[in-house]
Amino acid sequence: MLTSFSMLPWRLLHFLIYGSFCFVIVPLFPGLVTVDAFTGTYGINYGRIADNIPQPESVVTLLKAAKIKNVRIFDADHSVLKAFKGAGLELVVGLPNGFLKDMSTNEDHAMDWVKENVQPFLPDTHIRGIAIGNEVLGGNDQELAGALLGAIKNIHSSLKKLHLEDLIEVSTSHSQAVFNSTYPPSSGTFKEDVLVYLKPILDFFSKTGAPFCINVYPFLAYDFDPDHIDVNYALFESNSGIYDEKTDLHYDNMFDAQIDAAYAALEVVGFDKMEVIVTETGWASGGGGDEKGASPENARTYNYNLRKRLFKRKGTPLRPKIVTKAYIFALFNEDLKPGQGSERHFGLFKADGSISYDIGFSGLKSSPAPPSSISLKDIQVKGWLAPYSLIFITCTSILLLVLA
């Protein structure tokens, strides 16, 4: 008596067997599917140095209503990680500078940190990256700078031991202090004393595929030298721009110019293939009397034009094929931040959840956002099934060619 399998055409039988094999074997090797730490081109920094901002659950509602999917926090606060559970938002958590020296010398502590602050929240909270420190290089703390690479390696090693290295990207962000020169963009170079620490980090990231992360603030450049920088050049408004004679490229905004200066500096030290991602950029809506350009009008203009520029999904003059990605600084005005007055006025939203100025978002107060129509089931389908469907289609195509 023939079984139901033996009655199937032999080609169909082979297709079912090998197709099933694809679905069985792929989950056993998660390295076959990697998840980018950044979806699209637009993200935001969710700082919380404040005592009057909305609770994390309300922040999730705000982000989903604004359709901002990429979010960075500067620590791994559990209340935030729990609130982001099932939200479908892509989150980068931070290992604060104060942890670096310990993590660089103690692998067990690095593993404990990952097990306590990352692993328990997966997969429902989409942690896609860990930022190791922030703006460490270029400062005066040489001991901290020396600890950065060790902390990066130990956190990455912990992720690898837990089979999470293909899910979670390890990176670190730099300020403009790492550069010796940025003008014109083609003259971009790193400081020699910074390269002592930076070069080994770049070597490591070139192997893991991590980007070079830079914080870009045309606001700070303009505030430093308002007599020689056209504010329209800093704000993406109409201006004559600058011409880079070496590359024969024209720049009509400082944002692109600063990114290309980073690309030029990377090329000088042998990392011309490394992607540059902007991890902070923004414009203050207020500040002290001596802070030039800090106003609601300029903040709105910069952030509105930046959003339009990012949504075009284009690159820079020097790297036109590499789509520019940026995290805006910041989500809220943070009333407890130290420093100049502008530090407390970078938020797209005020502390009560209302908009600071209109660039197309709705605030919690002025227009309460309804719950997102995207269900957890939808998120799982989009976030999990899509990569595996691609693999199944690839397997199917190969089988059809073989069996034809």
From TrEMBL:
The keyword Glycosyltransferase does not apply. GO terms for biological process: carbohydrate metabolic process. It catalyses: Hydrolysis of (1->3)-beta-D-glucosidic linkages in (1->3)-beta-D-glucans. Pfam families: Glyco_hydro_17 (PF00332). Belongs to the glycosyl hydrolase 17 family. It is an enzyme of class 3 (hydrolase). GO terms for molecular function: glucan endo-1,3-beta-D-glucosidase activity. The chain crosses the membrane at residues 12-33, 384-403. Its EC number is 3.2.1.39. The lineage of its organism: Eukaryota, Viridiplantae, Streptophyta, Embryophyta, Tracheophyta. SUPFAM superfamilies: (Trans)glycosidases. Keywords: Glycosidase, Hydrolase, Membrane, Signal, Transmembrane, Transmembrane helix. The keyword Transport does not apply. This is glucan endo-1,3-beta-D-glucosidase.
